[in-house]
Structures are given as structure tokens and as C-alpha cells.
Fold this sequence. Notes:
- One of its GO terms (biological process) is homocysteine metabolic process.
- The chain is α/β, with parallel strands linked by helices.
- Helices cover about 60% and strands about 15% of the residues.
- The longest helix has 25 residues, at about 55-80.
- The site of CO-5-methoxybenzimidazolylcobamide has 27 residues, from helix 5, strand 3, strand 4 and helix 9.
Amino acid sequence: MQEMAYELIVGNNADVDRLTQEALTEGFTANQVLDDGLLNGMAIVGVKFRDNLIFVPEVLVAARAMKAGMTHIEPILSASGAEPAGTVVMGTVKGDLHDIGKNLCIMMLRGAGFVVHDIGVDSSPEDFIDAAEEHEAEVVGMSALLTTTMPNMGRTIATFEDMGMRDEVRIMVGGAPVTQDFADEMGADAYGDNAVDAVDKAKDLVKLLAELKSS
Ligand code: B1M
């Protein structure tokens, strides 16, 4: 498991692919391989990225290695009906084509057990609403990298309100120019500063929504 985590951290997808397969053949469960091997590695990648010890290219190669391992794990987990941590719809707002940060967040969320529906870039308020409805998402995540497109987060939140859907979802925003103050002003439920923070906030939001729905 340590070897698997190490090869993931250094982005060696061929070895992660082989070690995952070997571990499953040797009788380790999919959950053991996921938790003790792949997620342990990915957690270290997340911390190193947050602390500026590694950068976007290293995270992307680690993500590719994670994906290689997950191809063996996913079919077993979905057949076993394991409960996901939550369902998230994630996109970059209208007019904005930047997706590297969004994709990193998605990768970290998936690594943490969330089901994430990626609606891509240049996503209109209606795109977010349609996807949230279709997938019964608990969390809607919006990313923006341009000061000119940041207001589209507020417009999307307003559209959720207009459609009477604001209470159905919790909304998280993020992206380099976005701040906690801006998120508060727009009426978002959470602000994610980075991909690791996005995972923590998504966990909090799922819990909060469950509490609200049960009260
Ligand atoms: Co663009 N661009 N760009 N660009 N680009 C910036 C953002 C810019 C700051 C560069 C600059 O001038 N210094 C500037 C914006 C200025 C401003 O708004 N004030 C800019 C500009 C102006 C533009 C164009 C307008 C340029 C032009 O055509 N004249 C144009 C706009 C196109 C459009 O979107 N309509 C444009 C185009 C592009 C490329 C296509 C060339 C490319 C994007 C490729 C792609 O994404 N597939 C690009 C890039 C790469 C950048 C820079 C260099 C890097 C952005 C990036 O990927 N960062 C950027 C300058 C910079 O930031 N140094 C720049 C790495 C990424 C991991 O960080 O996205 O912040 P980030 O994500 C972080 C956190 O913010 C957080 O987690 C991530 C991981 O830690 N996070 C979330 C992000 N989303 C989150 C969501 C959450 C939670 C956390 O919850 C939902």
C-alpha cells in the first residue's frame, strides 16, 4: 500500500495500475486499496499542493495515476453499492473558459468519495440548475477565474432563488479572484480557497443540508 501511495505521489501511472491490480488479486478489498493506497497518496498530494511544495503539473500527473488505479476500483465499488460522500455538480461560470482549478477540485472531491458531475466551462445559470435537478445534487460548485465573470456566480445563485430551488442545494464558489467576502456578498454557502478546502467545505455542506432537511 505504501508503494502504491508513493507511486501515485510521483505520478507513475503504470506502476499504480499494476499495484492496484496485484493488490486486488492478492485479496485486498477495493476499500482497503482505495483508503490505504490511493487515497493516502492523494491526501499527501493535496497537502503538498496546498503548501506550495508541488505545483499544477505534478498534481495532474498524480491525478492521472489515481485514475489508473480507480479504473480497477470503481466497478467493484459501484457493484457493492457503497454510499458516496455526496453528489456535487461542478462547472466554470458563463463566459469563463478556465478549468484547471475546477478540474483539480473535481479530482480531489472524487478522491474523497464524492460523485461529481462536471458540466464543463462557460456554464449558464440554467446549465447549473438543469444538472442539479437531473443528478439531485446536494452541492453546486462554481469556479471563476476572471473578474468579469465572477458576477455570474451571483446571477446563478439568483436564478436558483427565482426557480424556487435555493433550499434544495448548498452552493460553493471558488477560483483565484474569489474571496470569502465576495462569496458572502453573493449569498453563497461556502467559499473554497483551494482543492483541499473544497473537499472540506463540500463535506460540511452535505452535513448541513442533511440537518436542514431533517429539521
Ligand atoms: Co487566463 N487569465 N485568460 N487563461 N489565465 C488569468 C486568470 C489572469 C489572472 C492572467 C493575468 O492577466 N495575469 C487573467 C485574469 C485577469 C482578471 O480577470 N483580472 C486572465 C485572462 C485575462 C485571460 C483572457 C481574457 C486572456 C485573453 O484572451 N486576452 C482569456 C479568457 C478566456 C475566457 O475564459 N473567456 C484567458 C485564457 C486563458 C487560457 C485559455 C490561455 C488558459 C486557461 C486554460 C484552462 O484553464 N484550460 C489561461 C490560464 C492558464 C491562466 C492562468 C495563467 C492560470 C490559471 C490556472 O489554471 N491556475 C491565470 C493566471 C494565474 O492565475 N497565474 C490566468 C492554476 C489553478 C490550479 O488555480 O484556477 O485558481 P485556480 O484554482 C485553484 C483555486 O482557486 C481553487 O482550487 C484550485 C486549486 O487550488 N478553486 C476552487 C478553483 N475553483 C474552485 C471552485 C471551488 C473551490 C475552490 O468550489 C466550487
